[in-house]
Write a structure and sequence with these properties.
It is a single chain. The chain is mostly helical. It is built from 6 helices and no strands. The longest helix is centred in the first third of the chain and has 39 residues. The radius of gyration is 27 Å and the shape is flat.
């Protein structure tokens, strides 16, 4: 007997999004394009954030170098590094390393996904995709689906007017 799906808000949001993506992209070709676009947007965003963090790290690294480096200047600043010229935090370095790893994995996924685009399906198979998509993710606002949900869950579709 299959387990009941999780009812936590995060899982419910995932199920809704999952079903929406199937409803709105019910063919193999549409799923290919959707996944390609999602991968590219992920790579673009992660890459841009990485660039911004690198600029931030470079700017933080340049600031102390612009100060005089003579022994007298070092004595004037004190033996310890001034708080505003503190070295880059480990958390930023770790985040940058994690983003580099993410980008490397995304690049690998992109290389694998390119193989998926070599596959073409006949129209009959694409029609089967549409049929199965309708079964997997029926329109939640369909009148029959709303009545069925009300019967199964004993919850009204509309607020009580009483």
């Amino acid at each position: 007997m299959p387990e009941e799906p999780c009812q936590c808000p995060d899982c419910q949001r995932f199920y809704r999004e999952h079903d929406r993506l199937i409803r709105e992209n019910p063919t193999l070709r549409q799923q290919q394009e959707l996944n390609w676009a999602a991968l590219q947007s992920f790579r673009t965003l992660a890459g841009r954030v990485m660039e911004e963090l690198q600029k931030q790290a470079d700017a933080a690294g340049d600031a102390p170098a612009q100060q005089p480096s003579t022994p007298a200047a070092a004595d004037a600043r004190g033996a310890a590094v001034a708080p505003d010229a503190a070295p880059e935090p480990d958390s930023l370095q770790q985040a940058m390393a994690d983003l580099e790893n993410i980008n490397a994995h995304l690049f690998s996924i992109e290389a694998l996904m390119e193989r998926i685009f070599d596959v073409r399906m006949p129209e009959e198979v694409e029609q089967k995709f549409r049929e199965v998509a309708g079964e997997l993710a029926p329109d939640p606002l369909n009148a029959d689906r709303l009545r069925l949900n009300r019967l199964l869950h004993q919850t009204p579709d509309l607020p009580d007017r009483s």
